């Protein structure tokens, strides 16, 4: 993995947005994998700024969200249908018909998961997958012990994840217990992975993902298997990395033409 340590959360968003922008400029009909949560928001805000300035055109870009709650009405402000529309589709100017979110209301959830995998394949696969990371090392809603080869499926959310997400709901009890999520194997099929994290509360998970063993106990460690994964973090999120000085040195000495 390429590890980029930056001085601020804003800079994390700017550099990660540049990775995505390079793909969209090179391929106007690019397919983006869209993460929700607080970590990627700075990416979307920077991409929206560039779109507003006429620097980027997302009108032909397709998007596939990572996950969705099971049984949460799509009109609920915290359903990922609503979140993706509010934070990505409208600000970036994506065509709503080209943005897909897993179906958490399907009568046959297993069939809906298989159909979502097929839709990604039919679109030609994901060109760049945006990722955040949970405090327990989850990516998407692939909780610890998830199969490293897993595909889009139904998952039970851990108490820790439900606790972390309770701030978005009226009460902890209102957080759904299940979700539909792209699997770790699905994520690994993307041509490019970009994971962002900010803050001390993500430091332990980042250290496990980047420098720990490849393990289902830390689902994000699966990025170690990908040939083109970039982890972009601020100093606080990097605070547990043993080799942080090397990562800083590598970035500082990267040729300007290779930077994002």
TrEMBL record:
A Pfam family: Glucosamine_iso
Keyword terms, alphabetized: Allosteric enzyme, Carbohydrate metabolism, Hydrolase
A GO term from the CC aspect: cytoplasm
Record pathway: Amino-sugar metabolism; N-acetylneuraminate degradation; D-fructose 6-phosphate from N-acetylneuraminate: step 5/5
Transmembrane segments: none
Residues of the Glucosamine/galactosamine-6-phosphate isomerase domain: 10-229
Activity regulation text: Allosterically activated by N-acetylglucosamine 6-phosphate (GlcNAc6P).
GO MF annotations in UniProt: glucosamine-6-phosphate deaminase activity; identical protein binding
Sequence similarity: Belongs to the glucosamine/galactosamine-6-phosphate isomerase family. NagB subfamily.
NCBIfam families xrefs: nagB, PRK00443.1-4
Protein name: Glucosamine-6-phosphate deaminase
């Amino acid at each position: 993995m390429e590890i980029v340590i930056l001085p601020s959360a804003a800079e994390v968003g700017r550099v990660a947005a540049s990775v995505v922008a390079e793909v969209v400029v090179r391929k106007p009909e690019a397919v983006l994998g869209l993460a929700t949560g607080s970590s990627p928001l700075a990416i979307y805000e920077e991409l929206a700024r560039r779109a507003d300035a006429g620097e980027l055109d997302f009108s032909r870009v397709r998007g596939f969200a990572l996950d969705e709650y099971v049984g949460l009405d799509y009109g609920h402000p915290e359903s990922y249908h609503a979140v993706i529309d509010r934070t990505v589709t409208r600000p970036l100017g994506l065509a709503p018909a080209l943005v897909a979110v897993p179906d958490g209301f399907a009568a046959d959830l297993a069939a809906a998961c298989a159909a979502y995998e097929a839709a990604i394949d039919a679109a030609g696969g994901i060109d760049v997958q945006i990722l955040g990371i949970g405090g327990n090392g989850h990516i998407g809603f692939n909780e610890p012990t998830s199969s490293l080869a897993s595909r889009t499926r139904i998952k039970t959310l851990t108490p820790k994840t439900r606790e972390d997400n309770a701030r978005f709901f009226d009460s902890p009890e209102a957080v759904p217990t299940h979700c539909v999520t792209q699997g770790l194997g699905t994520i690994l099929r993307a041509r490019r992975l970009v994971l962002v994290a900010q803050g001390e509360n993500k430091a332990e998970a980042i250290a496990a993902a980047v420098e720990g063993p490849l393990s289902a106990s830390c689902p994000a460690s699966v990025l170690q298997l990908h040939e083109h994964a970039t982890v972009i973090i601020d100093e606080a999120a990097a605070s547990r990395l043993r080799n942080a000085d090397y990562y800083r040195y590598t970035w500082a000495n990267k040729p300007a033409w290779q930077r994002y």
